[in-house]
Amino acid sequence: MITPQLLAHYQKTRDACHYRLTGHPPMTMVEQLAAISEQARQYDSQDYYGQGELIESFETEIATLLGKESAVFLPSGTMAQCIALRVWADLAGSRSVGFHASSHLELHEHNAYETLYGLNSVLLGAPDRVVTLADLESVDSKLAAVLLELPMREIGGQLPNWQQLSAQSQWAREQGIALHMDGARLWQCPAYYGRDMAEIAALFDSVYVSFYKDIGGIAGSVLAGSADFIASARIWIRRAGGNLYALYPYVLSARAGMERNLAAMPECIRSASWLAAYLNQFDGVATLPLQPPTNLFHLQVPCDPSRLVEYACDWSERHKVFLLPLPRAHSDGHSIMEFSMGQAVQAQRPAQWESWLQDFFTHLPRDSN
């Protein structure tokens, strides 16, 4: 168990390091606000209750990027996804929606889809793999919508191939079922599919994207779809308290993050591929998946989480280099961590990172069992 004291030690150690292997280079609050200030110089006034050139131009920009007719900016993805599914449910006259057992809606939102939005869930597929066409075809109940996550975070950033995804999209349309994308990390997918974001989004009736995951914004998301769909979503956003008096700090931060980090996604994916291949050489260490299709993968290390964090802190304090994310799970004697590669890795050559990793894993304390 990682105690609050150990967690505080871990965070202090991380913040004192000169180099980080994962993520983007950290920004202080002052640096974030400076980036917002620079963006703000381009506009005459802020937004008010979702209106104004600042927010409307950004919504149009993201809608165009995703190949959709319209888009709306929201404070959070939790709100965006539930609202999307509720809109589709109302249109279909059914409260049943389908998503994978590892969906954020199922694991991290305290059943908001049911408690606040009156939806019923049908869990699709096996917990340790991507959803397949057979999983969809096996559903007995009439679904209003199906949510597919691209990539699937809880199983290491895995993706269906293009043929599989296209077949699922065609099935949904033949069945009259809306297909919604949890695209929190959609930014990672074009390199894998060899298609731009609009081509991927064209397989879906609605799309959600996040601006703090991979993009590095403070918070915020966009929901995109047809003009009628977004008009209905705006009503639900108002009901849910998401139509804030002003959202400009989040919009400006999202714009700055897009300019700073979006173009670097292909290089981040190449970094993940190199790093996973190198890590899989160490005894008892394994990545999931073995070959990451995106910049995200999970790492299994044969060590108890608290021992691993203690060792990582000690090693990082001596080298001023931060290597491992905080363990997010413990299974069969292994700590499981999530690696999300950003631009921070570019601060050193791969050979230097490999040297540090070799030293780290050579002296790693291992559980006897």
Compact overview of the structure:
It is built from 15 helices and 13 strands. The chain has 369 residues and is of the alpha/beta class.
Helix content bin? 40-55%
Secondary-structure-derived class: alpha/beta
Strands of the widest sheet, in order across it, are 2-8-7-6-5-3-4
Please give the oligomerization state of what you see: single chain
Please tell me about this protein's structure.
The structure is a single chain. The protein is of the alpha/beta class and 369 residues long. The chain has helices spanning 4-16, 29-40, 53-65, 77-92, 104-107, 112-115, 133-137, 162-175, 189-193, 197-201, 227-239, 248-261, 265-279, 305-319, 350-362; strands at residues 19-20, 70-74, 96-100, 120-124, 145-149, 178-183, 206-210, 221-225, 286-288, 296-301, 321-322, 329-331, 334-340. A seven-stranded mixed β-sheet has the order 2-8-7-6-5-3-4, with helices on both faces. Strands 9-10-13-12 form a four-stranded antiparallel β-sheet, covered by helices on one side. Strand 12 and strand 13 (334-340) form a beta hairpin. The longest helix has 16 residues, at 77-92.
Task: Give the helices and strands, then pairings.
Layout: H1 4-16, E1 19-20, H2 29-40, H3 53-65, E2 70-74, H4 77-92, E3 96-100, H5 104-107, H6 112-115, E4 120-124, H7 133-137, E5 145-149, H8 162-175, E6 178-183, H9 189-193, H10 197-201, E7 206-210, E8 221-225, H11 227-239, H12 248-261, H13 265-279, E9 286-288, E10 296-301, H14 305-319, E11 321-322, E12 329-331, E13 334-340, H15 350-362
Parallel strand pairs: 1-11, 3-4, 3-5, 5-6, 6-7
Antiparallel strand pairs: 2-8, 7-8, 9-10, 10-13, 12-13
Helix pairs in contact: 1-14, 2-12, 4-11
